[in-house]
């Protein structure tokens, strides 16, 4: 098992073609889970699972939060295993949960190579990370 909060350095910064896979299990009675790709001054990609509100929220923090995006559906369930795959393209982050694409988030922060940390926070048990 991998400790949470989880943080890993992206050597050389993010590049198109880089992906992140997290397999784990949502804790019972969860409040939230965050998957973040960070740079020195903020969060380029913030993917938040809000269990209280039964929704997903995606955003960017760069001096302040930008407009939120709300992917449809809620693929994460309390006490259940999951796999999330985040893939960086030239133009967006594509998010696939349990084999289904849930969102494509257009890059708001550039240059990508300044994004150098991947982190997972919240009510989750991590079994495997490929970052």
Describe the structure.
With 131 residues, the protein is an all-beta fold. It has a single domain (6-130), classed as Sandwich (Jelly Rolls). It is built from no helices and 11 strands. The chain has strands at residues 6-9, 19-26, 32-39, 42-50, 55-62, 64-65, 81-88, 92-97, 100-106, 115-122, 124-130. A hairpin with a 3-residue loop joins β7 and β8 (92-97). It is globular and about 40 Å long. The mean pLDDT is 97.
Question: What key attributes describe this structure?
Answer:
11 strands, six-stranded antiparallel beta sheet, five-stranded antiparallel beta sheet, 0% helix, Jelly Rolls, 131 residues, single chain, mainly beta
Strand fraction equals over 45%
Radius of gyration: 14 Å
In N-to-C order, the SSE pattern is EEEEEEEEEEE
Strand order of the largest sheet: 1-10-3-4-5-6
- In CATH, the topology is named Jelly Rolls
Chain-averaged pLDDT: 97
Number of helices: 0
Helix content: under 10%
CATH top level label: Mainly Beta
- CATH arch. level architecture: Sandwich
In total, how many domains does the architecture comprise? 1
Distance between the termini: 15 Å
- The parts where pLDDT drops under 50 for at least 5 residues are none
Number of strands: 11
Q: How many strands, what sense, and barrel or not for the largest sheet?
A: 6 strands, antiparallel
The assigned structural class equals mainly beta
How would you describe the shape?
A: globular
Give a brief outline of the structure:
With 131 residues, the chain is mainly β. It has one domain: Jelly Rolls, CATH 2.60.120.200.
